[in-house]
Amino acid sequence: MSIRLKIGITLATLAFAGAALAQTPAAKPSRIRGDIVSLDGDVLKVHRRSGDTVSIELKPAVAVSAVKSMQLSDIKPGSFVGTAATTGTDGKLTATEVVVFPEAARGTGEGHYGWDLGPNSTMTNANVDTVVQGTSGRNLKLSYKGGSNEVTVPPNVPVVTFTPAARSDLTPGKKVFVVATAASQGGAYVAQRVVVEKDGVAPPM
């Protein structure tokens, strides 16, 4: 396999992984967070945070990615990020995690919408216009098609970016984040994309 082809495959994988933070209302995807119980053939079993265990079909084309840690200082004007945040009583956004997208995934899921990490949770996928040091962390001024907002990123919030992974990384006990659709029968799911813990870094989204 040529180096150019390998690079192309890697970029495509990262772009596809970036779509894990995209909202697709028409498809009504489920976001499954939990610990891997097993991978048997094409069936991934995950023990969810809610306490139940679900089966997820992994079709051959489904890409598996991971995340690696970055520093808050790595976020610069011009970065394209996805940040989950909570809305305070004052209406201000405070980040609970930040994903810095690789350039190949710029524009993925662009916008501001509801998220399911907790009450008043939102997701903003946007360009970073400015970064200002504030009293509670760094304040990111974000712009996206149709709007803009500002989010404060406290120093202890996980900041990650996507990195390639393989099915061999889907081992019992690893934490995983799966975007999936419900199967037509049997109560199982069909994975659209998978982000797995690797080198001790769990997907925070």
Helical proportion, percent range: under 10%
* H-E string: HEEEEEEEEEEEEE
Low-confidence stretches: 1-16
Q: How can the largest sheet be summarized?
A: 13 strands, mixed
- Whole-number radius of gyration? 17 Å
Mean pLDDT score: 87
Distance between the termini: 33 Å
Protein name: DUF5666 domain-containing protein
Signal peptide: 1-22
Keywords: Signal
Could you list some keywords that capture this structure?
single chain; 205 residues; mainly beta; OB fold (Dihydrolipoamide Acetyltransferase, E2P); 1 helix; 13 strands; 8% helix; disordered N terminus; DUF5666 domain-containing protein; signal
What can you tell me about this protein's structure?
It is a single chain. With 205 residues, the chain is mainly beta. The protein folds into 2 domains: 3-63 and 166-196, Beta Barrel (OB fold (Dihydrolipoamide Acetyltransferase, E2P)); 67-160, no CATH class. 8% of the residues lie in helices and 48% in strands. The chain has 1 helix and 13 strands. Strands 1, 2, 3, 4, 5, 6, 7, 8, 9, 10, 11, 12 and 13 form a 13-stranded mixed beta sheet that branches. Strand 1 (30-40) and strand 2 form a beta hairpin. The longest helix is centred in the first third of the chain and has 16 residues, at 3-18. The protein starts with a helix and ends in a 9-residue tail after the last strand. It comes from Paraburkholderia graminis (strain ATCC 700544 / DSM 17151 / LMG 18924 / NCIMB 13744 / C4D1M). Residues 1-22 form the signal peptide. Keywords: Signal. This is DUF5666 domain-containing protein.
